[in-house]
Every structure is written in C-alpha cells, then in structure tokens.
Hints:
The protein has a single domain (4-235), classed as Alpha-Beta Complex (Spore Coat Polysaccharide Biosynthesis Protein SpsA, Chain A). The chain is α/β, with parallel strands linked by helices. The mean pLDDT is 90. Helix content is 36%, strand content 16%. It has helices at 20-28, 45-50, 66-77, 98-103, 127-142, 175-185, 210-235, and strands spanning 7-13, 34-39, 56-60, 83-86, 112-117, 156-159, 190-195. Strands 3-2-1-4-6-5-7 form a seven-stranded mixed β-sheet, sandwiched between helices.
Amino acid sequence: xxxxxxxxxxxxxxxxxxxxxxxxxxxxxxxxxxxxxxxxxxxxxxxxxxxxxxxxxxxxxxxxxxxxxxxxxxxxxxxxxxxxxxxxxxxxxxxxxxxxxxxxxxxxxxxxxxxxxxxxxxxxxxxxxxxxxxxxxxxxxxxxxxxxxxxxxxxxxxxxxxxxxxxxxxxxxxxxxxxxxxxxxxxxxxxxxxxxxxxxxxxxxxxxxxxxxxxxxxxxxxxxxxxxxxxxxxxx
Length: 236
C-alpha cells in the first residue's frame, strides 16, 4: 500500500487560465500537496495562479513542452515525496479517480500506473484523440514498451525518483509515450487503472496539433525502434 504522505500532485499548465481554477478546486479535495508548472503561458494563467493559496507554482519563462513541465514538477516534488500523481489542466480528468491509481499499486512494487480513460470510443470524443490513442498504443509496443490500452493518458501515477532517472529525451507530448518504453527497459512495471474522461466539446482547451504532433510522434518512435534494434543486435 502506498504511503499517502509521500504522494504529490503535479499539473502542467499552458494557457489554461479558463480551466485551472476549477481543476485546482477539485484537486485540493484529495489532500495532497499540489505542484503546478506554468509552462510559459501567454494568457491569464499566471494571474489566476497568483491568486490561489495552497499550491506550489513553478514557472518556465518560455514554453518548453509538457514533458519539460512534468520533469520540473517531478524534480520539485521529489524533495519530499516518492510518488507523483499527474493530471491535465484542461478539465478532462476527474481528480477523485486518483484513488483508482493509488489502489492499483501492490505493496512492494513501484510501477507507473496509467489511467485508462473509459468511453473513448464515443462520437463525442475528437477523432484526433481516438486515432492518436490507437496509433500510440501500437507503436509504444513496437518500440519495446508495454502493450496497454491508453498510452496517451495524462492521468498517471509515477514513482519518484525513478521517473527522473530514465533518460527520456522527449520534452513535449511525446514524453508520455517515451517514458513507457524506457520504463520497461529499466524493469519498471506499467499497469493501468480505469478513470473517467470528460470532454467539453468546442470549449475544450487542447494544445495537441494533429499533423505536427503525429510527425513528432513518428520521429520519437523511429528513434526508439532504432535503439531497440541496436540493443537486440548487441545482445546477439
């Protein structure tokens, strides 16, 4: 069982000024320390965060990417905690589902727990999310990572400092798929737990750019596959 006194919440934020207050209000109820990383927002995010008490706000002067923001949050949280719960700032996750991630950990193990978003096949879910999830699941597996159902979910539980010590090179959205591949390479289990998902239709704030990020994904997977081939070659 996880020591709940050693769990922190890390939320990467980029131009989510219209959502972050509601997300934080719901997150505070979990009773864990909260680290919010403002990744160079250009809207009113910084102003909104400055008015909120009870959270640790970390800031990047310029946008560096979701992966970079997560690493900044992990580094800060690791000084006092050994687990980091991550969730997105767009309001798609229900913070109370964090309990499912925590309960999935078996005593003595230190896995990455990925929140498997339920109902992702519905017509209300953007096609980019539905296609992107299947695309990512397959290529994570081909790259040598685990075969899981939702490799793009940002609702996760990470062990610290292990998540900081896997030499993950990607610093944008691709961080979340690369770390799954690196986890398997380092012998860290990757498991899933069911979570709910909420999409706000046209009001949803997303910084995923389909063609640009699919291209970046392809470059990341190509690099990981080549690394896998060279590893197998060396073993032979």
